[in-house]
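#lab-general

N.A. 3:47 PM
ok so I finally got the sequence cleaned up, no stray characters, all 306 residues accounted for. can someone with queue access submit it? mine expired

B.Y. 3:52 PM
send it over

N.A. 3:53 PM
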Amino acid sequence: SRLTSLGQLEMTWRSKAHFQPLLVRVLHKSRLRYYGKPDKKLDMPYQAYFEVADGSGMMSMVLWNSLCPEWYNSLKVGTVLLLEQYAIKTSYPFKTQPTPGDSQMKRFATIEISLNVRDPPTKISIIPEDVVKPEWGLPEVKYRFITRSELDALPNNHSCDVIGLVTFVGRAERARKREHGEDFWLYRWVHAIDGTSDQPFILELFATSQPDVFEHIHPMTYLVCTQMRVVRDITENPSRTIYLTTSNESQIFITGWHKGQPYIKDTKVKNFIQWIKTQREADQMKKTVIGGYYPFPRPPNNFLRY
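B.Y. 4:20 PM
back already:
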């Protein structure tokens, strides 16, 4: 009875110093961000964004500093939280926005929930899924899974989720974050098939905050990637290169990590599992490749155009 909602918070936050507890479900999770600088003396300069929702809509929630190592791995997509003693701030205008699985959901974009160790010290409680009641009105996690046969029709930068059987894993490569900077992004190319097309999904997977998954992607694993973005080559290249790349909110799952994830109820995931059951493992193993140099997107076929 003492709970408030995200919708009420948006209407009343300016007139209150203390807020009633919130009951929300995590719908999206960003990668962990390190914002330390040599001249700033912060013990744990970490930050992570989550999109959380209740029956009234969706809002950003920010986990700060030492709460990140304590809570980041426990707060999964689908987790239900009871939040007490949190702060409300105006939203940071330049942060990335994930594409919600439910396009009808209202987004409260002017403010965000701020979770800190002090001022005030936030209390976070995880509510086990088996005691979550339907009358709480919390939304289910929804996805935007596509098949490989649907990919060619999608526009550049379209957001989607995919599932496939891994047939190729490239070596880990590095790209500079800035032209003359010393920081690098780590990424690898992966091919995955889903039985709906002769062509595989070509996936550019950057190392998110899941090193235990990123390092163990290998052929014949069932791979799920969420919040991927379509990249189209819109130059004169006749092959119309199309691939998917990770976004700030992408999550990657491999065999051994799927149990209990919300996407296992999705129709396209179930269809993929049915297709896998019709395949002979030995036949697929013959087509798999690992490592080596993978030049992609391919350079033009003559040197002058290159």
